[in-house]
Specification:
Layout: H1 2-10, H2 12-15, E1 19-28, H3 33-41, E2 66-73, H4 90-102, E3 106-107, E4 111-112, E5 121-130, H5 138-144, E6 145-154, H6 155-159, H7 161-166, E7 169-174, E8 185-189, E9 199-208, E10 211-220, H8 230-273, H9 277-280, H10 283-295, H11 297-314, H12 320-348, E11 356-359, H13 361-376, E12 383-385, E13 392-395, H14 396-412, E14 422-428, E15 432-439, H15 471-481, E16 485-492, E17 495-503, H16 505-511
Parallel strand pairs: 12-14
Antiparallel strand pairs: 1-2, 1-6, 3-5, 4-5, 5-6, 7-8, 7-10, 9-10, 11-13, 14-15, 15-17, 16-17
Helix pairs in contact: 1-8, 3-8, 10-12, 11-12, 13-14, 14-15
Length: 512
């Protein structure tokens, strides 16, 4: 309602007839599409009955985010756009993601405006909106990205009758992606002058939202008055279009941005706290967990046992090559066993019913640290635990897996040139508790701070550092189930700090 009132106060049809619509497009994660549709359907701020027929169209592709028209003004004449995912088109998705990553406005290639006539040309100008102000780096912008404000321009109206009246021939083409003149995309063409009329012609180029337009226009000898040069005419047309776009777009989108952020926060609040277990616990996951735990683990154990029996049978009279092959088989079987174990943990993490209670993090962490020190033969002072770690509210089994994976990850990625130092601490506030695991290892490049939480995303070869690539993915999944957040708090060549933020008991109960 607030967005609607603001746009109405601008009087777009009267003051800016070239703009056929101004929309807020929410960035929607695939797993949360159902909750998003429900939230919009139940919004009664404009209509008493809400929007019961609202749906994302076309259906989102699995795993891909959508950029859905959540509100559009004016609604009349733009009904078909309500709920449309502009990310369903590859070129528009690229434009949205370029705006997201650069923080700048981006124009699309020419499009046919289906809300008008099927052949009327137009383009979209896209402005990114973030939940947090001051996002400077690529990772910060992607993390804080909320959606985009989209202005829909009608090119014939933008160019206007006055241009057609002053010039016998006006042609505008988008040459951004063209490798040759024939590849250019036509934007606008006036009626051609009679062949018998000789035209004075000229070309100019114009930059619009990161795209390049080529303007070709001309007038016949009969209409060129003495003292008026073609350069003056061409500069006049160039100035007309160039001066029309930026002031309006800059002012309008800047005014809209603050309101769009407020609407984005209100709309996504319920989505962020919603339980996503329904989408995760599907039949494919159940079947996969069964195969991983039964059909695959049994032959792996048989292979491992077969290698051991073969080594005993051959004894010490085998050659070096055979010993090398047997060692390779044994190591591969062990690696596959660990991979299947991690896969099963990852697949079953959200299938197991959460047993929520106060978790004694201090006692648990000291026990885990002692086990890992013995396993990796580390000195007693390698893992330092701050006195009296605070308790957290969560599932004891999953929290122990989280602590084990974070400390184990710090051990695996230690720097061989210095003695290993790992520090575990907590910071308690009124609403949450943050667990931090800091090390003096090899560090993580900034562009990989998000990638390390993706399943199977390894930054080093297995021969360099052991592991399956699922440890941090499991940590991310555990924190999601606890309605919490895990991230790389800081990292450099001197080491890395991971922070896992657990919400309080009330917050987790609401999410559950």
């Amino acid at each position: 309602k607030e967005y609607h009132d603001f746009i109405e106060s601008i009087d777009i049809p009267g003051r800016y007839p070239s703009v056929s619509g101004l929309s807020w497009n929410q960035a929607v994660k695939y797993d949360l599409r159902g909750q998003f549709e429900t939230s919009v359907r139940q919004d009664q701020s404009l209509l008493e009955g809400g929007h019961p027929e609202f749906a994302i169209k076309p259906p989102m592709e699995p795993g891909q985010p959508g950029y859905v028209v959540t509100y559009i003004e004016p609604m009349q004449g733009n009904e078909e756009a309500f709920g449309f995912d502009i990310g369903s088109n590859a070129s528009r998705r690229m434009a949205v993601e370029r705006a997201r990553d650069t923080g700048m406005s981006v124009a699309t290639a020419p499009i046919n405006l289906v809300q008008q006539s099927k052949t009327q040309k137009g383009f979209l100008l896209i402005m990114p909106v973030y939940d947090e102000h001051g996002a400077k780096t690529l990772s910060e912008r992607r993390s804080a990205f909320a959606g985009v404000v989209v202005a829909v321009f009608r090119l014939p109206v933008l160019i206007g009758d006055s241009v057609s009246q002053k010039f016998d021939s006006v042609v505008i083409k988008d040459i951004t992606d063209a490798s040759a003149d024939k590849d250019a995309q036509w934007i606008y063409a006036s009626e051609s002058a009679p062949e018998s009329s000789q035209l004075y012609t000229s070309q100019r180029q114009l930059e619009i939202g990161g795209r390049t337009w080529q303007l070709e226009f001309g007038v016949s000898q009969s209409v060129v008055q003495p003292g008026i040069t073609m350069t003056e005419i061409s500069l006049g047309l160039f100035g007309l279009i160039a001066s029309l776009l930026p002031p309006f777009i800059y002012w309008l989108l800047c005014q809209t941005k603050t309101r769009a952020i407020k609407h984005a926060n209100e709309l996504t609040h319920d989505l962020q706290t919603a339980n996503a277990d329904l989408d995760r616990s599907n039949k494919d996951l159940n079947q996969f967990a069964y195969i991983a735990s039964h059909d695959l683990q049994t032959p792996v154990r048989s292979i491992r046992m077969g290698v051991e029996l073969l080594e005993c049978e051959l004894g010490s009279e085998v050659g070096d090559d055979v010993k090398k092959y047997l060692t390779h088989l044994r190591d591969s079987a062990d690696r596959l066993k660990h991979l299947l174990s991690d896969l099963l943990t990852y697949a079953q993490a959200n299938r197991r019913e959460m047993q929520l209670a106060d978790v004694p993090l201090d006692v648990m962490t000291r026990r885990v640290a002692g086990q890992l020190q013995a396993q990796y033969d580390l000195p007693d002072d390698a893992i330092k635990i701050h006195a009296s770690l605070a308790d957290v509210w969560g599932d004891k089994t999953q929290v122990e897996r989280l602590v084990t994976n974070l400390i184990g990850n710090a051990i695996k990625y230690r720097n061989p040139d210095r003695s290993i130092e790992i520090t575990v601490s907590t910071e308690k506030s009124a609403n949450d508790c943050t667990l931090s695991v800091a090390d003096n290892g090899i560090g993580i490049e900034e562009e990989n701070h998000l990638k390390v939480f993706e399943p199977f995303k390894r930054l080093h070869r297995h021969e360099e550092i052991e592991g399956t690539g699922l440890g941090l993915g499991i940590c991310h999944q555990i924190m999601a189930l606890h309605s919490g957040r895990i991230h790389v708090a800081k990292s450099s060549s001197q080491g890395t700090t991971f922070s896992a933020q657990f919400p309080g008991e009330d917050a987790i109960k609401v999410a559950a």
